[in-house]
Design brief:
By secondary structure, the protein is mostly helical. It has a single domain (2-196), classed as Farnesyl Diphosphate Synthase (Orthogonal Bundle), CATH 1.10.600. Helices cover 78% and strands 0% of the residues. Helix 3 packs antiparallel against helix 9, helix 3 (65-92) runs parallel beside helix 10 and helix 6 (113-121) packs across helix 9 (156-175). The longest helix has 28 residues, at 65-92. The protein starts with a helix and ends with a helix.
C-alpha cells in the first residue's frame, strides 16, 4: 500500500517538474515575468521535488497522516527558500564560491526574484539594460557589476532576502509541530543552513 502511495507521489512530482521546465522555457528572456509566474516555476522545478522527498521519507518512517502533511509542507517551504537563497547568491557570491560564473542566470535569459523586483520598481532605462544583457547573452554593453549595483541600490536584494527568511521561518515553524528529538532538530538546522549558505 505504501509503495502505491509513493509511486503516486513520484508520478505527480515528475509531471510537475516537467511542466516547470517547459514553463520556464516559454518565459526565458521575458523581462515582464511577474513574481507569481516565477514562484510557480520555483514550485514546480524545485519545491515540489523537495516536498516529495520529505513526504516519502515520512511515509517510509511510518509517520501519521498529519506528520506526512507537515513534512510535505515543510519541503515546499524549504524548497522555495533554497531557490531564493540561490537567487541571492547569484548576485552576492563569487565564481569561486559558487563553482560557476556568478550572475549567470540573467545571461541565460532567466529572471530571478531580485531582477524581477528590480524590473517592477525601475524606469525604462534600467529595463533596457536588463533587456540588453538578456539579448546579448553576456555582460557586454552592460557589466555584471552594473547590474549587481542596480539590484542592491533598488532594494531588490533586501526584498528577496526578506522573502527567503519568510519561507525558511515558515518551514521551521511547521516542524516545531513534530515530536521534539534529534530528527526535528536536524530539520530545523536545514532552515538555518539555507539562510546562511554561501554557495
Amino acid at each position: 500500500e505504501r509503495c502505491f502511495e509513493i509511486l503516486d507521489i513520484l508520478t505527480r512530482v515528475t509531471r510537475q517538474m516537467t511542466e516547470g521546465e517547459l514553463i520556464q522555457l516559454t518565459q526565458c528572456g521575458r523581462v515582464e515575468i511577474t513574481e507569481t509566474e516565477y514562484l510557480d516555476i520555483v514550485h514546480r522545478k524545485t519545491a515540489y521535488l523537495i516536498s516529495a522527498c520529505c513526504e516519502i521519507g515520512a511515509i517510509l518512517a511510518g509517520a501519521s497522516p498529519t506528520q506526512q502533511e507537515i513534512m510535505r509542507n515543510f519541503g515546499l517551504k524549504i524548497g522555495i527558500a533554497f531557490q531564493l537563497a540561490d537567487d541571492l547568491l547569484d548576485f552576492t557570491s563569487t565564481n569561486e564560491k559558487l563553482g560557476k560564473p556568478a550572475a549567470s542566470d540573467l545571461r541565460e535569459g532567466k529572471l530571478t526574484l531580485p531582477v524581477i523586483y528590480l524590473c517592477e520598481e525601475s524606469k525604462e532605462d534600467v529595463l533596457e539594460k536588463i533587456r540588453k544583457v538578456v539579448k546579448e547573452g553576456e555582460y557586454l554593453s552592460v557589466t555584471r557589476d552594473e547590474v549587481v549595483s542596480l539590484v542592491e541600490s533598488s532594494g531588490a536584494l533586501a526584498r528577496s532576502r526578506k522573502e527567503l527568511l519568510r519561507y525558511a521561518n515558515e518551514a521551521q515553524a511547521l516542524v516545531m509541530n513534530l515530536p521534539e528529538n534529534t530528527y526535528r532538530q536536524a530539520l530545523v538546522s536545514i532552515s538555518s543552513f539555507i539562510i546562511n549558505r554561501e554557495n
